[in-house]
Amino acid sequence: MPVSLENSKIIYTALKACGIRLLSALPETWLVHLIQIAEGDPEMTLVRLAKEEEGVGLSAGAHFAGVKSAMLMQNHGYLASINGIVSFAHLYKIPLLMLITYRGSFGERDPWQTQGGNVTEALLRAMNIPYSFLDAPASVEKRIRQAHALAESSLQPVALLLTRDLMWVE
Amino acid sequence: MLRTDCLRSIYSELEKCLVVTIMGAVAAELQSLGHSPNFFYLQHAMGLASSTGLGLALCLPHQKVVVFDGDGSLLMNLGTLSTLARYKPKNLVHVVFDNASLLSVGGFPTATSTGTDLEGIARAAGIPRASTVRTVEEFKAATRQAILGDGLQTIVAKVEPVGPKAFLTDLGLLENRFQFRRYIQSLAAKSH
Question: I need a surface site. Which of A148, B93, B120, B192 has the fewest CB within 10 A?
Fold first, then answer.
């Protein structure tokens, strides 16, 4: 599978370094290694969801409990989570660290992913969610650390878009 | 059976629990019995009260967590039952007040009014123990046992579709949220 194991490990290490101890996830191709690494890590609570919006509640519960969490999802999972983000995370000022695979962007070969790619950034902007990209191994650690810091200080959702350049080995 | 009588019957058992409620009548009625800093009212995001309870229960395995859900909210996120069942936190009690109605928006009937069986769905999803109660005595016994005992349970309480006159209270949403988190932090501080 041409998903980058090496870069998945870099992402995971950076999440651990931020103190993330709960990950909610719904599998998608680009996330397989990240989810498998989390599954094998006794320090991490991995919660496999039926639908990504549940992850907003999970992260809120973890925040109340004083546990740092992150959400792994595809951009279509972000689309499926919008009400939870607005009417829980925004309404109650819940920090969310959302790692979102950016499917349907340049280089996408799966026709079914393409519409989600068109609207992802526009929706993040419309929802006032600060976002950045994970697009090169050298900057992953710093970007995750900065995104986490902003989510915690602003008590709001922050998104990192995991790009094809980082996640896929052609 | 009235939801407010159910809540009153187990109110004293909630003292040491973390309580998460859905919006509307459940939140207003619990508050009317007396707000406490260990109560969090999720005044929107229908369907996510149980997910919040799961997050709390997994992160605080020695703390009993009680979720007061409703039929309308649960029907919006039936997948939550499969996620709860997957992780089976022993310290989570999932109470569903089923009035077969979306009461706070004018009483429109939900699918439980035409036969959808939430206890059956919970059991089939893999919740280890699921039950339906129809009297306050049954509710009190089942919920008390679930709070004092061990193991994930879903208790469906068939209640009448009546609620309080008003749903708004003077407790601010953010005030409630920060108070709730601070309460949990104080528990952690005490246990150290």
Answer: B192
Q: Does B55 touch chain A if contact means CB atoms closer than 8 Å?
A: yes
What pLDDT digit, counting tens, does each position of B43-63 carry? 999 999 999 999 999 999 999
| C-beta of residue A10 within 8 angstroms of C-beta of residue A140 | yes
Neighboring chain A residues of B87 at a CB cutoff of 8 Å? 47
Whether B182 and chain A come into contact, CB under 8 Å, resolves to no
Distance from CA of A137 to the nearest CA of B (A): 31
Q: What mean pLDDT is reported for chain A?
A: 97
Pick the CATH number of B3-191 from 3.30.43.10, 3.70.10.10, 3.40.50.970, 3.40.50.1240: 3.40.50.970
Half-sphere exposure of B166 (CA within 13 A, CB side): 5
- Distance from the A102 Cα atom to the nearest Cα atom in chain B, whole angstroms: 25
A88/B55 Cβ within 8 A: no
Does ipTM come in above 0.95? Answer: yes
Rounded CA-CA distance B71/B96 in Å is 6
- Tell me the one-letter amino acid at B191: S
